[in-house]
Amino acid sequence: MSDVRGDDPLFGPFLAIQRQFPGIPLLSYYDADFFAYSRDAAWPQEWDVPALARLASQVAPSTVVDVGCSDGRILWHLRRRGIGAHHIGLDTSVAARASFEERFAGESGVHFRHLDVTAADGPAVEADLAVMGSVTVNSFRTHRDLDRLLGFLHGVLRPGGHAAFLVYQDHVPGLFRELGRAMDAVPFRDADGNRRLIWRGIDFAPERDNDLRQNYFIQYDDDRFPGVLGLVRERVWTTSEVLAAVGGHGFDLVAQDIAVVDDGGAEGWPCDALLLRRTPRPPQGGTRT
Ligand SMILES: C[S@@+](CC[C@H](N)C(=O)[O-])C[C@H]1O[C@@H](n2cnc3c(N)ncnc32)[C@H](O)[C@@H]1O
Question: Which top-level group of life is the source organism from (predicted)?
Answer without folding.
Answer: Bacteria
